[in-house]
Amino acid sequence: MTQLKTIFAGLSLRNPVIVSSSSLTNSAEKNKKLELAGAGAIVLKSVFEEQIMMQAHHMATYDSPEAGDYLSTYVRSHAINEYISLIQETKRLCTIPVIASINCFSSSEWTDFARTMEEAGADALELNILSLQTNTDYQCGSFEQRHIDILSNIKKHVSIPVIMKLGANFTNPIALVHQLYANGAAAVVLFNRFYQPDIDINTKKYSAGEVFSSPAELSNGLRWTAIASAQVPQIDYAISGGVHNGEAVIKAILAGASAVEVCSAIYQQGNGIIEDMTRELSEWMKKHGYETISEFKSEMNALSTGESNPFERTQFMKYFSSRD
Questions:
Q1: How far is CA 223 from each of CA 200, 237, 263, 310, rounded to the nearest angstrom?
Q2: How far, in Å, CA of 174 to CA of 188, rounded?
Q3: Which tens digit of pLDDT belongs to each residue from 186-213?
Q4: Cα–Cα distance between 178 and 173 in angstroms, integer?
Q5: 294 occurs within a structural domain
Q6: What's this model's pTM, rounded to 2 decimal places?
């Protein structure tokens, strides 16, 4: 009898499939349907610090400073109150873990909000600090330090698990993961996905590139999860990006992940893909004689590779030399 239960960030999940933060999870009714479809947990649609700050700044441009300050405060309060209602309503309807999500870039704005999320019933908090560093005077390491500072500041005010969702734009994610663990992170998600820009050559205007991830994107998450889970095994991992079927879930667990975050596959194939994934996982476990997730988790991370580590070397020459 296979058991699909897993522990991620200290939370007990009935299976490893987490629905990631998106418009899929922006209402309690949608979240209930995802639970009924078999999701192991839900990450609520993120509240964006940058968006709130831009709206507040726009309000603050009124001729009257007092009116600007009032409207700026209103924008923030309204956004926060809406999000608290989303947490409370989702917790009322759902029994699976509900993870709140903040997309932020500063450490000063969100400590009180994080505490309010916890009080509203969120089971954990996922932090997304997604930003491109492009200034010529950028100080190496400052972006990594911002992650640590934001995490440390929020950890002083909440007792629920804090999950860090990282972008894929770090020279050495392993060093950052180690520091995040040392500063109290319960789990790390690899990786968040940047907005994909494109150029329309007919209109010569900027446009959006591919919105959804592709299965090919899974390999980057596999690489870094396999290395990180070998070097920093004390923290939990989830893979996000490229998880489109049950096979990808199996690969993620073999590489060292406790869970996966799924978004694009649900948009493209509907909520039923969740059951397809868990069924494929269960059938594979039966075929290979596994009864629990823990029996094969990390079985193929970097510790299993010996001296020849396929995760840490480029293999273009090997690949092309084997082809006609």
A1: 33, 12, 20, 9
A2: 11
A3: 999 999 987 788 999 999 999 888 889 9
A4: 9
A5: yes
A6: 0.89
